[in-house]
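Need tokens for this chain, all 252 residues.
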Amino acid sequence: MYRSLGRVQRPSSFLFSTGSLITSFTVLITLSALIATFWTTPAVASKTAVSLPTAASNCFDAVADSYTSFFNPTANFGSDVELHLVSTPNGQEQLFATFDISKIPVDGTIISATLKLELLSADATDLPSTLQQVDRPWDEATVTWNNQPLVSGSYDSPIHSNVPGSKTWIATDLVTNWHTGKLDNYGLAIVPPASRTDRFAFFASRESTKGQGPQLCVEWEEPVVPTDTPTATATATETATVTATATATATS
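Here are the structure tokens for all 252 residues:
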């Protein structure tokens, strides 16, 4: 305290007078402005290939098969239980088969393809033959030597033993041509070479009860399908913050 003009005064650093009313300031804490801050939230997913190509395979059974005979030019053998491959000095018998490979994805890539026929019986010597493409449609129930479709190409020419069992021909290029649309899929033919002696081989047809009918075993690479992979980006959200304001209140 201190003296001034003989009167005692009190410190007034926090109070002041206006007439008889003494007013003080009370600080009130209020919630005010919502301020935008950044918060990490998932954004739109981006498409990214996250897996390597995978291989798939299937053995397709023939949907049609038959053989034609020079010796019986008007006869149809579409329902026979055997498929004949014969070569003599006087004429031949050759076989046909058709396969539906539409199960293979359009964007897939052919890795390998193998034709399998089960040999039931053959003459005493090995028999060479050639895998060829069929160039126009044919009907299992009506095909004969006289109306048989033209064949062309030379995709594989193995020499098989005369021991009964599964015999194979490599058909990768032919199946690739079908799959890519380079060739129409009218099936394939197995043709014997000209021979100076009588040669024969009898295979199981798809109607056979003695052995497995023709199969085309194909391996392919499945197409890669992009998958959705979430990525994080910053987006603005609102959050509350505390500020102080002064409000006057009357006290007596």
